[in-house]
Design goal:
The complex is a heterodimer of chains A (225) and B (361).
Chain A (H helix, E strand, L loop, with lengths): L1 H34 L5 H13 L2 H12 L4 H8 L9 H25 L3 H9 L4 H12 L1 H16 L3 H6 L10 H10 L3 H30 L5
Chain B lengths: L5 E9 L2 E9 L4 E5 L6 H9 L5 E6 L2 E4 L14 E4 L11 H9 L11 H7 L15 H13 L5 E5 L7 H17 L4 E5 L2 H7 L2 E6 L2 E7 H5 L13 E12 L4 E6 L2 E6 L9 E7 L3 E4 L10 E15 L2 E8 L2 E8 H6 L7 E6 L3 E2 L2
Parallel strand pairs in B: 3-8, 3-9, 6-7, 7-8
Antiparallel strand pairs in B: 1-2, 1-4, 4-5, 9-10, 11-12, 11-14, 12-13, 14-20, 15-19, 16-17, 16-19, 17-18
Helix pairs in contact in B: 2-4, 4-5
Classes of the chains: A mainly alpha (225), B alpha+beta (361).
Chain lengths: 225, 361
């Protein structure tokens, strides 16, 4: 049974950590994209959306090259005494952050964009500084967006396969996540184990999405305060 | 440099619109910024608040908010002003009470001159405190917005057409609150409006704007009595008088209102008490002139006056005559032919037949 739980626990840890870090990284990006008229807006939007259209293997390949001993990132991490990131859990977290970036940024950007700008002006005439306005008006009003972003990012990271394979390999307890474990079982013709894990994924994803939709519906009708 | 009052000088340009304004306004009372939509009155208000960047300067009662030489002006949240917006602007995620507290808790205790209870009482909000904004009527929302603005104990209250998004009933509901604030608060108020009725009722001082410029400004009574009404307003032109109720005529349902220079009889529709101050409006189109006192006619209000100025052809076939009853100015809108036939000229003694007097206050 331990052999089941290890990849599941690793996957949840990866998805949880990725989601938490992406909310911190993605919020300022989404806020900037939602408000700016800078010419860099379109190029940055495109870069954020790239993981949606690129095959995960392409993304994984470049990350592998970048973080490897000859890559720019790899050289920096080695100089800092951190070692090389590929085939480590940390490397997987960084890859997941890039891979799942659009799933955080896009819902947040939509939520920020739909906030009535006049409310921020009102808040400024009521003595709220820009930072104060962000925390007292923007975040509460964008709450459904934050919920959507978190759930989508979490779920998408759980389902990640190609990038993991390229950059993480298949090291039990370090990089062997659920999707890779299922692939492994199928390769070794262990269909029962593959079934258990796959069915678990299906049920989990369904429950997550149903919860998300009903929570969002209730938030909009004002029941969750 | 005067330390009292408001000095505002702004110039800005976007697209085809240019604004260029240099104003000195009284530091007390209600000043109406009046003009057609697109004349720049809202832009001016936004510049004063700092919501819109513009070159210029802004001082209020000795306090400098923006000055010509400096690169940066004081940001909005550091200006002791309050702003009431045209549309509903309550925070939808906060209850009425928390909306009211939003600005209140952000100013230091030592600067709070208006208490929470006072504001709630003034605007009649006690029964609404627990509600969410979506459960309020339009008029209630605007009352909450006004109270929320007052709770920052502002040194300047800016209102951008606060009634224009409301239906007639809600307007009637809010008007008395605005009047009470004007009379009881020692805070200068700037009120943007394109409604002559609102201006006549509320303003002490008026600034008329057209195409980004100030075309006239001064005390309401003086401006309203000018013969050269800007941008074709002569149809609505009329003077405003401050008068005192002095007598009731129960039988004919009238009451007498005394003003400097005479008295007028008005319909006693409202519960007027003797000695009460009222604001009267007499429209130029409701005054006709006679060379002699004609008693055998229906008009009850007959007043002797001296012709002060004749502006002929203010629009084709129409002339505007300015008259003085004592020192109080009146306007009469006549056909140019009538002016010619009666040979009305300055310094002439005439009789004004006033067909209608409205109480606007």
């Amino acid at each position: 049974m331990g052999i089941y739980w290890e990849p599941i626990w690793l996957t949840l840890k990866l998805a949880g950590l990725t989601t938490a870090l992406l909310l911190v990284v993605g919020t300022p990006i989404a806020w900037w994209l939602a408000r700016t008229k800078h010419w860099l807006r379109q190029p940055i939007s495109a870069i954020v959306a790239l993981p949606l259209v690129l095959p995960p293997t392409v993304l994984g390949f470049y990350l592998l090259v970048l973080m490897g001993p000859k890559g720019m990132v790899g050289q920096i991490t080695e100089q800092l005494g951190l070692g090389l990131l590929p085939f480590t859990f940390e490397g997987l977290v960084i890859a997941s952050i890039i891979y799942s970036l659009p799933f955080t940024v896009q819902p947040l950007q939509n939520a920020f964009g739909s906030i009535n700008q006049q409310l921020l002006e009102v808040a400024s005439t009521l003595r709220a500084s820009p930072r104060d306005r962000f925390f007292s008006i923007v975040i509460p009003l964008a709450r459904p967006g934050f919920l959507t972003a978190s759930v989508l990012t979490f779920a998408h990271t759980i389902g990640e396969f190609g990038v993991v394979l390229m950059i993480g390999g298949n090291i039990p307890g370090e990089t062997k996540v659920l999707s890779v474990a299922i692939y492994d079982h199928v390769e070794s013709l262990e269909y029962t184990q593959a079934h258990w894990l796959s069915a678990g994924m299906v049920v989990f994803s369904f429950v997550v999405l149903v919860t998300l939709y009903s929570l969002n519906g209730r938030m909009q009708s004002g029941l969750v305060k | 440099m005067a330390t009292h009052g408001i000095q505002a000088r702004f110039s800005c340009q976007f697209g085809a619109f240019t604004m260029d304004v240099d104003l000195e306004l009284p530091g007390t009372g209600l000043t109406a910024l009046f003009g057609h939509s697109g004349c720049g009155k809202t832009t001016l208000l936004r510049c004063m608040a700092g919501l819109q960047a513009a070159k210029g300067s802004m001082r209020i009662n000795g306090d400098v908010w923006q000055s010509e030489g400096e690169k940066s002006s004081r940001p909005v949240h550091q200006r002791p002003l309050a702003y009431v917006f045209q549309e509903t602007s309550l925070f939808p995620h906060l209850s009425v009470e928390r909306n009211l507290m939003y600005g209140y808790k952000r100013i230091p205790q030592s600067e709070r001159r208006i208490s929470f209870e006072q504001a709630v009482q003034w605007l009649g909000l006690a029964h609404l405190l627990g509600r969410m904004p979506e459960k309020l009527s339009g008029g209630e929302r605007q009352r909450v917005a006004i109270a929320r603005a007052l709770l920052t104990s502002p040194k300047l209250l800016l209102m951008d057409e606060p009634l224009s998004a409301l239906d007639q009933n809600s307007k009637r509901e809010i008007m008395p609150y605005l009047e009470a604030l004007r009379d009881n608060l020692a805070i200068p108020m700037l009120y943007v409006s394109h409604s002559t009725a609102e201006v006549a009722r509320l303003a002490d001082h008026i600034v008329m704007m057209d195409a980004g410029r100030v075309v006239a400004q001064g005390p309401l009574q003086t401006i309203m009595a000018r013969t050269d009404q800007p941008f074709g307003l002569e149809v609505d032109a009329g003077v405003i008088l401050d008068a005192t109720v002095s007598e009731h005529d129960e039988r004919w349902h009238l009451c007498r209102a005394d003003f400097a220079g005479g008295h007028l009889w008005v319909r006693a529709d409202e519960n007027l008490t003797i000695g009460q101050r009222v604001r009267l409006q007499v429209l130029a189109k409701d005054i006709s002139l006679a060379r002699s006192e004609q008693v055998d006619q229906s008009t009850q209000n007959l007043l002797p006056a001296i012709v002060d100025e004749v502006a002929s052809e203010v629009s084709p076939g129409t002339s505007m005559v300015r008259l003085l009853a004592g020192k109080t100015p009146f306007l009469s809108r006549l056909t140019s032919r009538a002016v010619h036939t009666l040979s009305i000229e300055p310094r002439q003694q005439v009789w004004m037949q006033i067909k209608s007097v409205a109480i606007v206050d």
